[in-house]
Amino acid sequence: xxxxxxxxxxxxxxxxxxxxxxxxxxxxxxxxxxxxxxxxxxxxxxxxxxxxxxxxxxxxxxxxxxxxxxxxxxxxxxxxxxxxxxxxxxxxxxxxxxxxxxxxxxxxxxxxxxxxxxxxxxx
Length: 123
Prior knowledge:
Elements: E1 4-7, E2 10-12, E3 18-24, H1 26-29, E4 32-39, E5 46-51, E6 58-60, E7 68-73, E8 78-83, E9 92-100, E10 112-113, E11 117-121
Parallel strand pairs: 2-11
Antiparallel strand pairs: 1-3, 3-8, 4-5, 4-9, 5-6, 7-8, 9-10, 9-11
């Protein structure tokens, strides 16, 4: 059974940092691209970042570019999202998604999802 489990969320002050982690099943990790998405209350799930299955190509939403960094450790079956200079508008539930082969900006194209981890940026 495929599982994605996010962790690392919490409450942080504006300007602070958090590192989100996503643990994945070995059965999917090697050929699946991974994405991070977030969802604020009353809003749709939106793209944050993705990394392809070879860990060569990455892409970021304009709102997080130069502040967030996505990475993956294929030996540990882990995906990370390092978030720096956090802003109140970064608040939301962050989800890790897995998509076969090529990455996508569209959450509807992802095959598997984790349960999400809450990130709150507030003073």
